[in-house]
Design a protein that fits this description.
The chain has 487 residues and is of the alpha/beta class. It is built from 20 helices and 16 strands. The structure holds cobalamin.
Length: 487
């Protein structure tokens, strides 16, 4: 038996379909005996796995790991399983091993790291474990060589979603993953493409997928969503594609197919690409149920956007903020602040730019992250790796210092003064109080009104420092933080 393990990554109320593990399950379904253990749905994930490995003949434990809090149960559970069942091979796949393959192989409780798209690599690894091929012949695989060396096989060329079967939703308690959200009462998630063709210097997607995006056919997207509607009562969707809108003709067909399903939905898109779309296409997108679009605006300065290799101008962000109003779609603009060359100037300019956006389109939702480097991206701001020593083991990534880095809370970058980071945090607190996110369903009216009233004078005067009263009020109301939860 193969065990697919998705360590806990989110609070129960934010639980989503574990798409990574479901994609792997799709290629095993009907061919291999396997089980799924998802820490987001099982409060005792370690015990469940200990029991499973103790009672079944497990051939491989396959673990999906993304940087951040998911590392904590991943490390802890794998360590315990390795100690109890040292003969069972353990493979990690997902964004963490794709970005930090050497770090993964430094752990005694991991044998293999799979980089990038995992379906075929997993199947070939199984063949290698069964003696039908060598590990060296498996593209996308990293493994331990002799005398502590690490072997990294060449990349695997990426295939589009249509090359693989659908997720076997019946193999998880799918109902538990369909949650209420701003988009509907029963929200599910779907990813209708893989990868991203751009090369933004701060982004981890390139390490996993190169610079390429492959789209699912609109007919298949429609069929999967129809299945979710008919079998699980889904009425809304969050699309996890890095760019849901890549080509206008594809979008138009997709909208035609989505419209009859009557879903409310959210997706991510690029500002420059959408500006090229006609008004008619925008109107069709809205009619098909789109309520909100997440855009990487990233910066309020063109010199920073150039450094990031974002291929975008601030003027385009303002144009989009203005244009999208007439279509009744809420834009969610995300920013990455703190260019190492001049973090103070970058921060000042970005705060001013966000104020301009809010003037143009007050409904805009704002997400702000301090710049958190990804290794081997020397195109971004010169070679930041010289200035940051990344952890050498997964264990170190579970410490408070590196968790704060991974969740982009406090990256402790050597070039950024703590006072700059504090200014950014204070501003974020004031803006998110002045306009509490519409995505917070549990926020009572008194909480919303209170936050707005308390923050109005601060925003008007541009006085963001020492916002203790807002911090307290946000804690009291448990205000939702989209920067941590809505990805
Ligand atoms: C969904 C999602 C989440 C969800 C998690 C959902 C869940 N199921 O619990 C939530 C909202 C919780 C989340 C949170 C965060 N996320 Co997130 N998230 C995503 C998102 C949008 C989609 C991931 C996904 O499901 N893709 C669909 C599946 C099919 O693709 P996949 O995961 O790549 O899986 C394939 C391969 O990686 C591989 N594979 C994966 N696992 C395994 C395992 C094995 C054994 C094998 C063989 C192969 C394999 O095979 C799969 C099929 O080909 C991505 C962006 C994106 N579009 O990819 C960001 C992304 C992964 N997240 C990211 C980040 C940074 C975070 C946060 C740290 C952000 C924050 N500020 O808090 C948090 C922390 C996560 C945590 N708690 O540990 C980054 C990671 C890269 C980086 N820079 O570090 C991404 C890439 C976003 C970005 N562009 O920066 N996230």
């Amino acid at each position: 038996m193969i065990v697919l393990y998705h360590p806990r990554a989110a609070k129960p109320r934010n639980r989503r379909f574990p798409l990574s593990i479901l994609s792997l399950a799709a290629v095993l379904e009907g061919h291999e005996e396997y089980m799924i253990v998802d820490g987001n749905a099982d409060a005792n994930e370690t015990d469940t796995l200990l029991r499973l490995l103790g009672t079944e003949k497990v051939e491989l434990l396959a673990v999906s790991v993304m940087p951040g809090p998911q590392m904590i149960p991943a490390v802890e559970t794998c360590r315990q399983l390795r100690a109890r069942y040292p003969g069972i091979p353990i493979v990690w796949g997902g964004y963490f091993p794709s970005i930090y393959a050497d770090t993964v192989l430094n752990a005694s409780y991991v044998d293999f790291a799979i980089r990038g798209q995992g379906e075929e690599t997993l199947l070939e690894l199984l063949e290698a474990l069964r003696g039908k091929r060598t590990c060296e012949s498996v593209r996308g695989l990293s493994f331990k060589g002799s005398a502590g060396s690490h072997r990294h096989n060449p990349e695997r060329p990426m295939k589009g979603p249509d090359a693989f079967p659908w997720s076997p939703f019946h193999r998880i308690p799918a109902d538990q993953y369909v949650r209420p959200s701003f988009f509907g009462r029963r929200t599910a998630v779907h990813q209708a493409s893989i990868g991203c063709p751009f090369q933004c210097g701060f982004c981890g997607v390139i390490s996993a997928y190169g610079s390429l995006q492959k789209m699912e056919s609109p007919a298949r997207t429609e069929a999967i969503l129809r299945h979710l509607v008919q079998n699980y009562g889904v009425d809304s969707i969050q699309f996890y594609d890095n760019n849901f809108f890549l080509q206008e003709d594809h979008t138009r067909e997709q909208m035609e197919r989505l419209s009859p399903l009557g879903l409310g939905w959210w997706c991510e898109a690029r500002i420059d690409l959408m500006l090229r779309y006609s008004d008619d296409t925008f109107a069709r997108i809205r009619r098909a149920g789109c309520k909100m679009i997440f855009f990487g605006a990233e910066s309020g300065s063109n010199w920073v956007l150039e450094d990031m290799n974002k291929q975008l101008k601030t003027e385009q962000t303002l144009e989009l903020a203005q244009r999208i109003r007439q279509f009744d779609i809420i834009p969610e603009f995300s920013f990455v602040v703190g260019n190492p060359k001049d973090p103070e100037r970058d921060t000042t300019e970005c705060l001013g730019f966000i104020r301009t956006i809010k003037k143009i389109n007050p409904a805009s939702e704002i997400i702000i992250y301090p710049y958190t480097p990804v290794p081997q991206r020397e195109r971004m701001y010169g070679n930041v790796e010289d200035q940051i020593e990344f952890p050498a083991t997964p264990d170190e990534w579970t410490t408070e210092r590196w968790q704060n880095f991974a969740i982009r809370k406090d990256p402790r970058n050597p070039w950024a003064k703590p006072s700059t980071l504090r200014r950014l945090d204070d501003f974020r607190l004031v803006v998110s109080s002045r306009w509490p996110t519409v995505q917070d369903l549990r926020l009572p009216a008194w909480g919303r009104g209170g936050l707005q009233a308390l923050s109005a004078w601060r925003y008007r005067l541009g006085f963001y420092a020492f916002p203790y009263e807002l911090k307290l009020m946000q804690r009291l109301t448990e205000l939702r933080k989209p920067e941590a939860e809505s990805l």
